[in-house]
Amino acid sequence: MKKILQISVIITLLFACKNESKKEVKDELQQHKVEKKETPKKKPLSPHTSTMAMIGDAHIHIDYSSPGVRGRIIFGGLVGYDNVWQAGAHMATWIETNKDLIINGEVLPKGKYGFFTIPSKEDWTIMINKNWNQHGKDDYNVNDDVIRFKVKPSISDKITEHLEYKVNKISETEGSISLAWEKVTISFPFKINQ
Predict the structure, then answer these.
(1) Which of 61, 83, 89, 99 could share a disulfide with 52, CB 3.0–4.6 Å?
(2) Domain extent for 83
């Protein structure tokens, strides 16, 4: 009887140890899951964003990826002078309007367009292009430009860390579009075609 009791105690202890070991493993796994969930998600270096405004009854929408300066020389460095740039990161920046606009004396029919630039030290060339859905400037074709004109950049001591577009309302029939990044800002006016 004593031997049966000893065996019974040993079996009970073994099961207790085994269950405790399972519990420890389960607790450890649970802790690992919690730690994994709490790890913050890495922010994209060039987050996808957009800006829009109503000018009268015209809805102007600009969609782009916004790269950061991150201590780099941007214009004349990362973005070479006198080269076509998609005016953002990844996919080409696009602009959409539900009304015809007048930009630089030319009519931009309502629709969706690629927005490209050629930065230089003295002036920038702005191109509004039929091909809005393309990766970067890979498929850019000058023959698809609907409007092309030059603007003078403004240089500032203040750094705009992330590329930023704005659609600014001037009146019910007029507005402006601006792009700012690093120390450079460009801007151009437009009117709603009545």
Answers:
(1) 61
(2) 48-192
**151: Cβ contacts below 8 Å, ≥ 6 apart:** 123, 124, 126, 186, 187, 188
Looking at the structure, do residues 110 and 71 belong to the same domain, yes or no?
Answer: yes
First to last CA, the chain: 106
Cβ-proximal residues to 177 (8 Å cutoff; 6+ apart), any chain: 60, 62, 95, 165, 166, 167, 168, 187, 188, 190
What are the start-end ranges of the E strands in the chain? 48-55, 58-65, 94-97, 101-103, 106-108, 111-118, 124-129, 145-151, 154-169, 174-192
pTM for this predicted structure? 0.78
Residues 23 and 72 in one domain: no
The pLDDT tens digits of the residues spanning 152-190 come to 999 999 999 999 999 999 999 999 999 999 999 999 999
Residues 17 and 60 in one domain: no
